[in-house]
């Protein structure tokens, strides 16, 4: 009897899906399309056994191309709810491989809100599986730390931090209390310098620091470590910093001090709603 009841309910749900959703997710009115996508995201989360599969997920993937920003936004927030739950990751693998390129391209969406949520979704994808995103995918997000729009830059800063700065060797646990050049932050500061120099936007250190300020404050305020990298002799077997790397570190350090003292984003970075012309 229980099985019969369950079958009956699933038949009803299927009838609602085919009779309502399949027609309305393409409705002429954007608000109705947005409601459809928001609801299917809830169904997938609440009853993943029935709804979290590619015959339903494809509708969210297709709708990511919707011409209205509010609808694209609902697609991304619906997907975030799914990727946030690590237990659902295995059911999302095919969808990820099929629609990943679209999500990456949405980080440059003309609507800032959509771009921010696309970056946040990719950060969740990154946490669910390191292998899914290629080096090129990641680089597309990295350069957004220099965006003039602060919410986009901060989201990209968090992605960059999770990818390059949040992993620690188990061996580091023994040196957590060490300070200066021997602290675990020393390698992370060097990574920051290398990233800054590779990105070749040398006049934009203040933008990079501001992008990572919220998620990497402890690292960016470790001036003792930065000083010791500049002033002390390298440890045994350690590569010394080149003059160019030292100059970059001094510039980053100055920007962190200014950010700590002034507590506001650098000149030219704002939170306007829409992107201007290219």
At the third CATH level, what is the topology name of the largest domain?
A: Leucine-rich Repeat Variant
Provide the gyration radius in Å: 23 Å
The total count of strands amounts to: 0
Task: Give the helix level as a range of percent.
Answer: 55-70%
Structure description:
GO terms for molecular function: chromatin binding. This is STAG2 protein. Belongs to the SCC3 family. This protein is an all-alpha fold and 278 residues long. It folds into two domains: 1-132, Leucine-rich Repeat Variant, CATH 1.25.10.10; 178-260, no CATH class. The chain has helices at residues 2-24, 30-46, 48-51, 54-63, 69-83, 93-105, 112-128, 135-142, 150-165, 185-199, 205-212, 217-220, 223-231, 243-262. Helix 2 runs parallel beside helix 5 and helix 5 runs parallel beside helix 7 (112-128). The longest helix has 23 residues, at 2-24. It is elongated. The mean pLDDT is 90.
